[in-house]
Structure formats: C-alpha cells, structure tokens
Design a protein that fits this description.
Length: about 200
C-alpha cells in the first residue's frame, strides 16, 4: 500500500467529515463580526497564483489602514512601498484569484478571505489612502467570495504571541549577510544592514 494519499476518497477516509463548527463559519460576505477582525488586523498574508507559480506576500500597515472594507463583498488594500518585485501584482493581472489570511496580535484566531482581485490606479482611490503625504502606487480591489475564521490551534502551538518564544535578532543571519553570501559580496554586507533603519524610515510609505 502506497504511503501517499492521492485521492479525495482516501483523504476523507483518513480525516473524516468536518463538524458543523468547521462549515457554518464559512460565508460568502463580510459579516459584522468578521469586519471587526479585519479592522483590528495590522498584518495579512496575500496569496496569489500566476504562470510562474505561487506567491505569498506579507502585508502590514497601521491598524485600520491595512485594508478598507468598502462593502460586504469588497476589500481595498493599498500597495505600500516594497522591493518593487511586484510578484503579487504580476500574478493578479494574469490570474485574479487571491487568498488573504489576517492575523491580530495577541488574538489566537486568524481570518481567511478568498476571492478575486483587480489592480486599480484610480487617482481618487489612491488619494484616499495617503499616509504621511504619500499615496500608494496602486490599490488591490478584492471581490470577496468566502470568509471564515481559523481556530487558534496553530497560533497556540507556535506560541506566536508569547514573549518567551521570541527569537533573539542576533541569532539569525542578517539581510545584508544573506545578500552578500548569495552575490559573492557584490550586494549587501554590513553597509546594507547599518543603513537599513534610515533607509526604512525614508521609504516606509
């Protein structure tokens, strides 16, 4: 017998049928309870798909500014400053399917949203997302198809919000060290790390 599960039937035989609490929580629109979770979240992972493969991008902003709930089936997410790879945006313009997972510091449950997205550069929309005098270059407009919360087991197992579980920054390779290693010293290094704080301050928005 193969140890690989290669059919839905085999998967369902192993895991059984989900209970009511696992299915009734999934709805096709943003409820008041789910909106409260979205409004409280400063961080989300944005998953997209394109011809080159999959992408999962971290998105962070001030509480209340990460996304805007524009309706029970519409989310607006400003595309803030980043590394200009625009992997998520490249995917969206060719395959509009997206998934979002919102995290709330100190809160165990996550919130998941699936839907389709477009990239908008409408001037009025960009202007509405100005922070510290800077507007995003685009806004991701998500049409919601499913919304549901994820129970707290994963966060509890990871001890994600526990101070005692935090990793000391000096115990990991720095971005400059990683870049130098991958580029034979032509990119990154100590200058990259030492200038990061000032660079981030100037390019945060």
């Amino acid at each position: 017998m193969s140890p690989i599960i290669d059919s839905i039937e085999a998967l369902e035989a192993l895991y059984g049928v989900p209970g009511d609490a696992s299915t009734v929580k999934e709805v096709p629109a943003i409820t008041p309870e789910y909106r409260a979770m979205i409004d409280a979240s400063p961080f989300a992972a944005l998953a997209t798909s394109g011809p080159e493969g999959l992408d999962c991008s971290p998105r962070g902003d001030r509480v209340g500014e990460l996304v805007r709930v524009a309706g029970e089936r519409t989310l607006l997410m400003p595309d803030r400053r980043g590394n200009n790879r625009v992997d998520s945006l490249r995917n969206i313009v060719r395959d509009p399917r997206v998934a979002l997972m919102f995290l709330i510091p100190g809160h165990g449950n996550a919130l998941r949203v699936n839907g389709h997205a477009q990239v908008s550069v409408d001037p009025a929309l960009l202007e509405s997302f100005v922070v510290e005098g800077k507007a995003p270059r685009s806004v991701i407009v998500v049409t919601v198809e499913t919304v549901y919360f994820q129970c707290a087991r994963a966060v509890i197992r990871a001890r994600l919000w526990e101070e005692s579980a935090q990793v000391a920054p000096g115990s990991l390779p720095t971005p400059g060290r990683i870049l130098a290693s991958l580029s034979a010293g032509t990119v990154g290094g100590e200058p990259y790390d030492s200038s990061w704080a000032a660079r981030a301050k100037e390019t945060m928005w």
